[in-house]
């Protein structure tokens, strides 16, 4: 994404955050239980400013926000971490984490 930066003095800038982005989660995820038990699962955001509007869908999406460049012509990468939790009917639990990085580049306001 892109964000507007403004000069605040000698070689100093303040940059707005990039627009929120929607990223896919779980598009290649599979869940199986060796005993064939029913499995409940949910996605949780563990880091960054992110939300998962439909956390109980295996293949879903997340909305990430807050990525911000440090200066014009600078691109910063922000990493977001998500965890998929799975629990079967006997209480056995498992989880897996995934990360997504987004890039936010600054440009000087005209």
What does this structure look like?
This protein has 110 residues and is mainly beta. The chain is 0% helix and 57% strand. It is built from no helices and eight strands. The chain has strands at 2-9, 12-15, 21-25, 39-45, 49-51, 60-65, 75-88, 93-108. The protein has a five-stranded mixed sheet, with no helix packed on it. Strands 3-6-5 form a three-stranded antiparallel sheet, with no helix packed on it. A hairpin with an 8-residue loop joins strand 5 and strand 6 (60-65). The radius of gyration is 19 Å and the shape is rod-shaped. The model has no long low-confidence stretch (mean pLDDT 92).
In short:
This protein has 110 residues and is an all-beta fold. The chain has strands at 2-9, 12-15, 21-25, 39-45, 49-51, 60-65, 75-88, 93-108. The protein is rod-shaped.
Determine the N-to-C terminus distance: 18 Å
Q: In angstroms, what is the radius of gyration?
A: 19 Å
Secondary structural class: mainly beta
* Number of E-type strands: 8
Gross geometry? rod-shaped
What does the largest sheet look like? Answer: 5 strands, mixed
Give the spatial strand order of the biggest sheet: 2-1-8-7-4
Query: Roughly what is the average pLDDT, rounded to an integer?
Result: 92
Strand % is: over 45%
Oligomerization state: single chain
* Annotation field: number of helices: 0
Helix/strand order, N-terminal first: EEEEEEEE
Low-confidence stretches: none
> Helix coverage percent of residues?
under 10%
């Amino acid at each position: 994404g892109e964000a507007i930066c403004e000069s605040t003095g000698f070689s100093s800038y303040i940059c707005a955050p990039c627009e929120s982005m929607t990223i896919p989660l779980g598009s290649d995820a599979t869940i199986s239980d060796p005993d064939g038990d029913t499995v409940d699962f949910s996605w949780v955001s563990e880091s960054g400013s992110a939300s998962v509007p439909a956390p109980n869908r295996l293949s879903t999406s997340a909305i990430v926000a807050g990525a911000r460049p440090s200066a014009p012509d600078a691109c910063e990468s922000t990493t977001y971490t998500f965890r998929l939790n799975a629990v079967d009917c006997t209480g056995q639990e498992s989880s897996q984490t995934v990360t997504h990085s987004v890039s936010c580049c600054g440009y000087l306001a005209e």
